[in-house]
């Protein structure tokens, strides 16, 4: 295992992604995780968004509570699925009023789920660049977008995918977070192509700790992320051994991050699944410590 031994943790930046809880029990888990991870001083924490009134409200409530009760900087995810411009604009104004200044702007998945054909709402934002323009007309938000090292499943090829990213940057996006991936060579080749296309915003690698291999592999198939054989082998035979799975998952994620650090990357976005333990362990191995001072914005990031 190639672990960088010369990491200056002060140069590293992390962000954590959560999803809005659906029940009181899930809410408790989420807040316990936020409290555990907050002392690591993430650059921001983001909260995902789903189509439909109740999930929208849950995102808003979670983000607002983060503003009210913590010193963390929240980023609210927002999609244009199944909503008119007026409805989306109201959500954006609601975030501004709640003190939120960072939005992760996304087109979103079709109501029928990944794989179904995307149909913009007749009165809605047609695409992510459109949405970004709309958000910028409402307030001076920091805007993050998605990026796909292995291309989005709907893209014919990587150049077409990068062309969409370029349009999002031209509309005002200031950073991109990638879909999760496991092959760092592949990510690095993608970043080279992004740079060759004249895109210079930070491309932050999205890291998913593999809590449950079967589930991750299934999700990867839907999102077009490849699952290397070596990863399957690491989890082979551990289906009924959650304790060992945890240890392996932390080691695998740490190995991926350390290798990216060795390659010069400094910012990392963790898909936490609302669980703190694995992400906390990986951050610890990166050298991050609770309440250590934060360096000036060290966003070499890709
Ligand atoms: P975009 O990057 O705008 O487009 C994706 C692809 O669609 C393009 O690559 C292209 O193939 C095609 N496309 C788009 N516009 C055009 C066009 N004008 N012409 C031709 N082709 C086009 N989903 C949620 O529902 N809620 C979330 O909170 C959420 N958070 C996410 C966070 C991250 C970091 C990532 C990577 C994904 C997230 N998603 C979320 C998933 C995302 O909504 C889906 O992947 C969705 O299918 C695409 O949205 P996007 O903004 O990534 O699309």
Per-chain topology:
Elements: E1 13-18, H1 24-37, E2 44-47, H2 53-69, E3 74-79, H3 85-98, E4 102-106, H4 128-138, E5 142-147, H5 158-171, E6 175-178, H6 184-196, E7 203-204, E8 206-207, H7 213-223, H8 229-235, H9 242-262, E9 267-271, H10 277-285
Parallel strand pairs: 1-2, 1-9, 2-3, 3-4, 4-5, 5-6, 6-7, 8-9
Give an overview in words.
Helix 2 runs parallel beside helix 3, helix 4 runs parallel beside helix 5 and helix 9 packs parallel to helix 10. By secondary structure, the chain is of the alpha/beta class. The protein is globular and about 50 Å long. It is built from ten helices and nine strands. The C terminus is likely disordered. The protein has one domain: Alpha-Beta Barrel (TIM Barrel). It is 43% helix and 13% strand. The chain has a nine-stranded parallel beta sheet with strand order 7-6-5-4-3-2-1-9-8, with helices on one face. The structure holds flavin-adenine dinucleotide. Flavin-adenine dinucleotide (FAD) binds next to strand 3, strand 4 and helix 5.
Summarize, please.
The chain is α/β, with parallel strands linked by helices. The chain has helices spanning 24-37, 53-69, 85-98, 128-138, 158-171, 184-196, 213-223, 229-235, 242-262, 277-285, and strands spanning 13-18, 44-47, 74-79, 102-106, 142-147, 175-178, 203-204, 206-207, 267-271.
């Amino acid at each position: 295992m190639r672990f960088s031994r010369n990491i200056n943790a002060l140069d590293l930046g992390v962000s954590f992604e959560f999803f809005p809880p659906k029940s009181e029990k899930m809410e408790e888990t989420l807040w316990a995780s936020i409290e555990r991870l907050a002392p690591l001083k993430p650059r921001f924490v983001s909260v995902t968004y789903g189509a439909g009134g109740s999930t929208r409200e849950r995102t808003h409530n979670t983000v607002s509570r983060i503003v009210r009760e913590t010193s963390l900087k929240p980023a609210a995810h927002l999609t244009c699925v199944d909503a008119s411009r007026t409805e989306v604009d109201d959500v954006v104004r609601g975030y501004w009023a709640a003190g939120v200044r960072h939005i992760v702007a996304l087109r979103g998945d079709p109501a029928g789920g990944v794989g179904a054909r995307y149909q913009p709402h007749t009165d809605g934002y047609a695409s992510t660049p459109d949405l970004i323009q709309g958000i910028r007309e409402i307030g001076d938000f920091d805007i993050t977008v998605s990026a796909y090292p292995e291309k989005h499943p709907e893209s014919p090829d990587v150049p077409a995918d990068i062309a969409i990213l370029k349009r999002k940057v031209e509309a005002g996006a200031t950073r991109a977070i990638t879909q999760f991936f496991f092959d760092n060579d592949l990510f690095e080749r993608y970043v080279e192509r992004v740079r060759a296309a004249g895109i210079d915003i930070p491309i932050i690698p999205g890291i998913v700790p593999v809590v449950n291999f079967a589930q991750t592999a299934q999700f990867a198939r839907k999102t077009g992320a490849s699952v290397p054989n070596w990863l399957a082998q690491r989890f082979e035979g551990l289906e009924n051994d959650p304790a060992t799975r945890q240890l392996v998952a932390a080691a695998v994620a740490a190995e991926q991050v350390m290798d990216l650090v060795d390659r010069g990357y400094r910012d990392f976005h963790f898909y936490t699944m609302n669980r703190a333990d694995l992400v906390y362990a990986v951050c610890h191995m990166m050298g991050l410590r609770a309440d250590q001072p934060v360096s000036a914005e060290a966003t070499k990031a890709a």
